[in-house]
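Hey, I was hoping to borrow your eyes for a little while. A protein chain has come my way and I'm curious about its shape. Take your time with it, there's no hurry, and the full record follows here:
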Amino acid sequence: MPDVEKITPYINDERNKNEQVRSMFDAIAPAYDFMNRAMSFGFDRLWLRRLINEARAANPHQIVDLATGTGDVAFALAKKMPDALITGIDLSDGMLEKARAKAKALTVKPNINFIQGDCLDTGLGNDSTDAITIAYGVRNFADIAAGYREMYRILRPGGKLCVLELSTPTSAVTKALYKLYTHYLVPIAGRLLSHDPRAYSYLPESIAAAPQRMDMTEIMQQAGFSNTAFRSFTFGVCTLYTAYK
């Protein structure tokens, strides 16, 4: 079991990790988009483009965006691939409310269906989608291996998986600065802006404990995926993983 599966958003809380993660994202949904921009200094937009380009290269007609949150990935997919059918799935009703509100505000309505659900048990059919995307969601899974097995199950043969996840830098100097920023400054900003005292302390804890790079692709391979690969961006603070069924 990866160490990150043992880390939960709230200390001394008897609820399971899925329930705690849902509650955390419900609480921080109003501030989530702003915090993403601020914490990443806007680099999240660059990382998002890399994810979308990888998914687009597979020319998918049906796409499932897991841990869709407020819908940033789903909307970006719809913009680049307007003919694709996109399903966004997330545990948090609070995050999905923001995603649906964004969709309503658009002049051109995107072809996206947002549904509340568990990424470990989507309820979708076997071999039912051409591509799967997930950004910053894997480390929140209560069982990462089970999550990848579910992705493998719903992906069509030849389909593509694209995973964007935060990671820790490899350079000693960058790692020291990163630790100072994520372990001290981010939690302070999170407490002030998100009104959840634990959410942005859980963030760096879960990043540090999550499987990364080769360790992550090994879990993908064990779930059945092939041609696994990864690329890290911005001094290693974000990594894009790709794999095929």
